Amino acid sequence: MGEGGLAAVAVEPLAARLGATKGSFYWHFANREALIEAALDRWAEVHTEGTIEEVEAEPDVRRRIRLLFAEAISSASADPLEVTLLATASHPQVAAALRRVTERRVAYVAELFAALGFPAAEARRRGLLAVTVYLGHAQLGHAAPSVLPGEDEFGAYLDEALDVLTARP
Questions:
Q1: What does the record give as the DNA-binding region (predicted)?
Q2: Distance in Å from the first CA to the final CA of the chain
Q3: Out of 1.10.20, 1.10.3470, 1.20.58, 1.10.357, which CATH number does the structure's domain 32-166 have?
Q4: How much is the mean pLDDT over the chain?
């Protein structure tokens, strides 16, 4: 999916690429939709739950948010799957997966802002804003990467984003 979008998820070419038969494919998946569902579940597990598990090891909440941003942004830069999925959000399975993953991400980041002392409603708004910033960064990373900060500016960029997101009136 990451290489060619949903159109690339076809049984025969995929089986051939894996050196398997079409019949062996159907041993593992009932149909193409089941394969898509499994791929979307794997994406959610690796790129959401796996990342959350990784950053939870950091005891300091502010550093946890920074680590989350750094991990998410570098993952999105290295893997076009997120942008590919956003481009195919009209597909029912993709739409459902994006909704689940986005709700989970917003809820998790809202928990982090709540842990910093923000009231629940404000923590949720800031969580939504943080996920929006991430998605915008991912889109720019594929559409116009030259406008994003380079490696030498990346740390300052993350610090500034975190300062803005955690600023108190």
A1: 10-29
A2: 43
A3: 1.10.357
A4: 90
